[in-house]
Every structure is written in structure tokens, then in C-alpha cells.
Automatic annotation (TrEMBL):
Molecular function via GO: (S)-citramalyl-CoA lyase activity; hydrolase activity; malate synthase activity; metal ion binding
EC number: 2.3.3.9, 3.1.2.30, 4.1.3.25
Family recorded in the similarity comment: Belongs to the HpcH/HpaI aldolase family. Citrate lyase beta subunit-like subfamily.
Organism in which the protein naturally occurs: Stylophora pistillata (Smooth cauliflower coral)
Gene: CLYBL
Residues annotated as domain HpcH/HpaI aldolase/citrate lyase: 36-261
Residue ranges the record marks as coiled coil: none
Residues holding Mg(2+): E160, D193
Pfam families assigned: HpcH_HpaI (PF03328)
Subunit structure, interactors included: Homotrimer.
Entry protein name: Citramalyl-CoA lyase, mitochondrial
Tagged with keyword Mitochondrion: yes
Length: 327
């Protein structure tokens, strides 16, 4: 992506910037875990799961849901239960996606994942349509882990229907305001099920999804959550993937769902600041701090007057650069 040594020199040039980068906030969201690439691996396919240990995906999502046939659900649970704690996924976050709460399969999925030798980092819950779904999940996790002293699980929920989008404010507020056995970390936009929900037809430019995509970002950022964009289903079209990933990054998404290892590099790069962007941000923050030091109000940077939102944007770039540099 860019030279690590040179980037570190840019970031560490100013000690105050170093302290700034150690801030807990990452582009307006909780935590410092980058989730640029969110790779689904069918939980029943042990060979693919094993291969995922050598991939550079920020998140490896062991799937019990859409990626697994109905007659293979039990096999997926057993495989996931057995490999958690056995395989080393390196710096990748390990997530387990359970089946939807309404499916009747979620309880068994949770038991398999949460009684394994080692807990996953996060649980991904599809089709979360209401606060009642969060309450059900809280009760199940508390019951299964009642004797566990482990750290709280990360929770990532998927927005996949018109009802889910309408109730998203309530779900985010409920999930982030109450003491629960999980940390609400991110929202994922599930475009395929959403299209079915509203009776729309997918097009290449995805204009039919514009409102929903932007609404998910707004809710995520309002509640300090990461926002993970929709899947680009044609994994043999790298140019299309790059265009959509870069669009998602411009919208404010922090990462993207992917379905093939060949999509990792493009997505990671699309959701990472370039060396030029990092240098711009570093220079701007330095200029701002110098103006602050001498007591000047207006900030002139490369011939442009800079306001505080632009300074904050630059700081966000630096935080993201620091977080992704650690991967």
C-alpha cells in the first residue's frame, strides 16, 4: 500500500501527533480495530477456514448463515467450535456470524461459538430488526457465558430490511446505552436481503441503494460505531470492486464485506489513507498547532483558509493511518 518506514516517520514526526494518534477514537467510532476487509468464510469448509489463517483480511468471519447450506449447519457449528483456539489467525479479528434470531438456529450457533476453547473476538448477528432482538441476544449470551470471566464480546449487527432501517436509531440507542455482555462495535449493510425487502432490482451503479447506504453510515457515526459496506458480488471484476469500495469510503464507511480472498488487497487499500493523504493531514495539523501556539485565529494552509471540521478530518486520517499501520 505504502512504505511503512516512511509512513511511520511522517506520523511520529511530532510528539504531540503521537499522543493524538493514541486517542481511542478512530474516525469518530469506538475502538482502534480496523475492519477494512470483512471476509466471509463458510464455517463448514475446514479447508477454506484453515487457508484464512494466512490471509491479510482485517476480519475473518466464520459463517453459519448464508454461506452454509441448510443441511450443513450442524457441520459448520462443529467445525467452528473445534477450530476456535486451535488455529492462529494472526492479526485478523475472528468473528462468527450466527443465523438470524428469527430462524430458530441462532441459539445453537451461539452455544457452539461461546463454549469453544477460545472465544471469537466478535459475534455477527444478521437481520437485527428490533430492540427485542438485542434483548434476546443479551439473555442468551449471559446464560451461555454465566460462569465465564472472559472479556466482553464484540457485537456487529446487520441491517438487511426496510424494518431494520426504520428501527435502526432505536437499535443503536438500545445497544449502546445499556450494560450488556457485549460491546456494540459496528453496523453492516446487507444489500441483497434489503433489496428483496423493498422489492428493488440491483443495478451496477447501485443507485437503488443510495438512501439506505447513507442512512446506515449516519446512524453508525451518530452512535460511535463502525460502518461496513455491502458486498460487491462479482469477485472477478476488480475494477468494479475498487470503484464501489472507494465510493463507500467517500460515503464514510470504514470497511467492506468481501466474499473472496482476491478482494482483500483492493478493499484494504481503498479504506486506508494514502501516503499523500497522511502527509497532507500531518502538515495541516502541524500548521494548525503552530497557529494555535502563536495565538492566531485564522489558519492559512496552502493558500486556503482552514476551519475546524477540516482539522478534525485531518486528525481522523492520522488516527486511521496509525491503526492500519499496526496491522
Amino acid at each position: 500500500m505504502f512504505g511503512g518506514g516512511k509512513l511511520c516517520k511522517i506520523i511520529l514526526k511530532n510528539n504531540h501527533l503521537r499522543l493524538l494518534l493514541l486517542s481511542r477514537n478512530l474516525c469518530g467510532v469506538k475502538g482502534r480495530t480496523p475492519r477494512r476487509s470483512f471476509l466471509y468464510i463458510p464455517g463448514n469448509e475446514e479447508r477454506k477456514v484453515s487457508k484464512a489463517t494466512g490471509l491479510n483480511s482485517d476480519c475473518v468471519v466464520l459463517d453459519c448463515e448464508d454461506g452454509v447450506a441448510s443441511n450443513k449447519k450442524g457441520e459448520a457449528r462443529n467445525t467452528i467450535h473445534n477450530i476456535l483456539g486451535q488455529l492462529n489467525f494472526g492479526s485478523s479479528e475472528v468473528c462468527v456470524r450466527i443465523n438470524s434470531i428469527e430462524s430458530g438456529l441462532a441459539e445453537d450457533d451461539l452455544k457452539a461459538a461461546l463454549t469453544a476453547k477460545e472465544l471469537p473476538d466478535s459475534i455477527v448477528v444478521p437481520k437485527v430488526d428490533s430492540v427485542q432482538h438485542l434483548d434476546w441476544l443479551s439473555n442468551q449470551v449471559s446464560s451461555i457465558m454465566k460462569s465465564s470471566a472472559e472479556k466482553k464480546l464484540g457485537l456487529i449487527t446487520q441491517v438487511e430490511s426496510a424494518l431494520s432501517l426504520l428501527n435502526l436509531h432505536a437499535v443503536c440507542e438500545h445497544g449502546t446505552s445499556t450494560d450488556r455482555p457485549f460491546r456494540f462495535e459496528a453496523l453492516v449493510f446487507g444489500s441483497d436481503d434489503f433489496l428483496v425487502s423493498i422489492g428493488a432490482t440491483r443495478t451496477k451503479d447501485a443507485k437503488e441503494l443510495l438512501h439506505a447506504r447513507q442512512s446506515v453510515v449516519v446512524h453508525a457515526k451518530a452512535f460511535g460505531l463502525q460502518a461496513i459496506d455491502m458486498v460487491y458480488i462479482n469477485f472477478k471484476d476488480p475494477e468494479g470492486l475498487q470503484a464501489q469500495a472507494e465510493e463507500g469510503a467517500r460515503f464514510g464507511y470504514t470497511g467492506k464485506q468481501i466474499i473472496h480472498p482476491g478482494q482483500i488487497e483492493i478493499v484494504n487499500k481503498s479504506f486506508s489513507p494514502s501516503e499523500e493523504k497522511v502527509k497532507w493531514a500531518t502538515d495541516l495539523v502541524n500548521a494548525f498547532e503552530e497557529q494555535e501556539r502563536v495565538g492566531k485565529g485564522a489558519i492559512n494552509f496552502h493558500g486556503n483558509m482552514i476551519d475546524m471540521p477540516t482539522v478534525q478530518q485531518a486528525r481522523n486520517v492520522l488516527r486511521l493511518a496509525e491503526a492500519t499501520q499496526e496491522k
